[in-house]
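Weekend entry, working from home. Most of the wet-lab plans are on hold until the incubator is repaired, so I used the time to fold the two sequences that have been sitting in the queue since the last round of cloning. Logging both here for the record. First:
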Amino acid sequence: MEKKISTAVIRRLPRYYRYLNDLLKVDIKRISSQELSERMGITASQIRQDLNCFGGFGQQGYGYNVEVLYKEIGKILGIDKRFTTIIIGAGNMGNALANYENFKKRGFDLIGIFDVSPDKVGKEIKGIKIMHIDSLSDFCAKNRVDIAILTVPAQDISEVAEKIASLGVKGIWNFSPQDLKLSHDVVVENVHLSDSLMVLGYKIAQRG
């Protein structure tokens, strides 16, 4: 039976990947769990437990080979694969995401942008013409779409998400205010930027 990895562990993997990339940039070739702990603010035992979920990668008395660990975590995260991506909603958030340079570096290829506004349809973002959402079904029939990024108003999210899911999209990255629960077998990642901002506000308030 396949081992079940907790969501908390999976959510820490991109952070490990980022810190390891920083180590490679300054030519650090190996690091112990304790040294990594001091840099990341995670206990050494937590780091060992997390990495042991995927095989460990460390050597007793040596620690971790930074480059090897970086590549292995990248494989776990699917960095070595390419994912085709579309954006639904070409407002401020959609525009910002379309212009985010790290998407392509991380293996996410933006191939389509959709909206309903006559003011936006036909214009271009990063060389990609914004299409009307009515053309979405035809587009998905002609192109493999792995991930749809949603930045639409809350009142439209359920209908748009169900339509996307029915077209064979594998995953949805939802930036809309409402959490998604779909009847289709689609992976959904809900992102709430305001939650993170409120946590920051709480931490500042506690200091006061």
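Second, folded right after the first finished:
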Amino acid sequence: MEISGKITQVLPLQRGTNKNGNEWRKQEFVLETETQYPKKVLIMLWGDKVEQFPVAEGQKVTVSIDLESREYNGRWYTEVRAWKIAKPGSENDSNEKEEMPF
């Protein structure tokens, strides 16, 4: 699934160590669609994708995403996780469009 729009906010990078001692990184950003009725969507980059696809406020991008919901203590939470980001008109457009599995 793809979503296009403008990045309106980049949240602080989060990092930590899991119980196995492995480090993790998560970068979240808000993308606003450029439709008749704009919607704001919080999207997450995880792990190596943080360095592979650096994001900045004001960029117009097309983001390939996976949606996943999970239940915790009787409540449901949905994540929007990016696995590819393409910046229209960039010189590296062909590299950025390369599909990479998690």
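Plan for Monday: verify the second prediction. The first helix runs from residue 49 to 52.
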